[in-house]
Amino acid sequence: MWGSHPYPCPLTVLFLQVHAKADVMGKDKDKEETQELDKNERGNWDNQCDFFLSCLGYAVGLGNVWRFPYLCYKHGGGAFLVAYSCMLAFTGLPLFFLELAIGQYGGVGPNKLFGRIAPAFRGLGYGMLFVTFLVALYYNMIIAWTLFYTFAGMQNPLPWAYCGNSFNDITW
To answer: Where are the chain's structural domains?
Structure first.
């Protein structure tokens, strides 16, 4: 099955064991989901550039552009970059690659994927979806504030230049 290579990839061995276990357990629900997925094929990337740009958009968010220079300044500038680069190389990128590999191999959402790996991990998939929902709300609120204050800043006079409320006037 693995050809002549004496040491197969550990990730491949893990997935083969998981699928063999699922086949032995004979879950009809998983078989129905697999048949349903076969009927509705998932989309594929047109080329490598589409995949790369999607991964870049996934990995580089608002926090990277906004907060990273501040963190560098706060934690020592160049010395922080050395520690950051080491953690990125030894932890961040391997975990990012692992997440991409599991997602590409499974071809389903996180709630079904983690449920297939181990039934106890099903909650992990739903937790990932919930956190994604919260982050989407947070980012949409930041974008809404940005748009609101961009257009409010084009008014003359600026709305925040004068309060004009009765409770903060000098006169009684």
So the answer is: 8-25+45-107, 122-172
